[in-house]
Amino acid sequence: MDVIEAIMNRRSIRKYKDKPVTDEQIKTILEAAMVAPSAGNAQPWHFIICRDKETQSKVKEINPYAAMADKAPLGILVCADLSLEKFPGYWVQDCSAATQNILLAAHSLGLGSVWTGIHPIKEREEGFQKLFNLPDQVIPLAYVVIGYPDQDHKTPSRYKPERIHYDKW
């Protein structure tokens, strides 16, 4: 699958088959995450791989939009270590780029995924910090749920020429 095809056909998947994601697939996904661009090449990210069903069931208590987490074989918590930042505040962009790479890499491997947001909602940040025992300087950005898709997804065009401007508004 080429990059344009992956971008155009990837969709959020919320239903998964009862089939494990392999360690090799996880490594490939995380390698893709870690080649994302970051401000000053700081690479402030950390990732927690969650396969534990008990922990996954608690995720939906913190973030209702991650209700499918305990039905998937895997979740990846994307975090930023603020002590690694070169340019304060850019961690959100850095970790967002890494998260997008996770989604695209998973899709290219035949997996489905969905980005469930944590930051900037303080209650969610605190809930994930507690659930995953994060150090104080580590902020969770997103919890990505991953597994083999158990739903069909359509890929309609979202191209809107009226939202494109050249040179000026």
Q: What does this entry look like structurally?
A:
GO terms for molecular function: oxidoreductase activity. It holds the Pfam family Nitroreductase. This is Nitroreductase. The protein is of the alpha+beta class and 169 residues long. The chain has one domain: NADH Oxidase, CATH 3.40.109.10. The chain has a 4-stranded antiparallel beta sheet, sandwiched between helices. Helix 2 packs antiparallel against helix 4 and helix 3 runs antiparallel to helix 5.
- Let me know the number of strands: 4
- Separate helix tally: 5
Measure the end-to-end span.
35 Å
Q: What structural category arises from helix and sheet content?
A: alpha+beta
Keywords:
5 helices, single chain, NADH Oxidase, 169 residues, 18% strand
Summarize the helices and strands and which ones pair or pack.
Layout: H1 3-9, H2 23-33, E1 45-50, H3 53-62, E2 74-81, H4 91-108, E3 112-117, H5 122-131, E4 138-147
Antiparallel strand pairs: 1-2, 2-4, 3-4
Protein name: Nitroreductase
Keywords: Flavoprotein, FMN, Oxidoreductase
InterPro entries: Nitroreductase, Nitroreductase-like, Nitroreductase/BluB
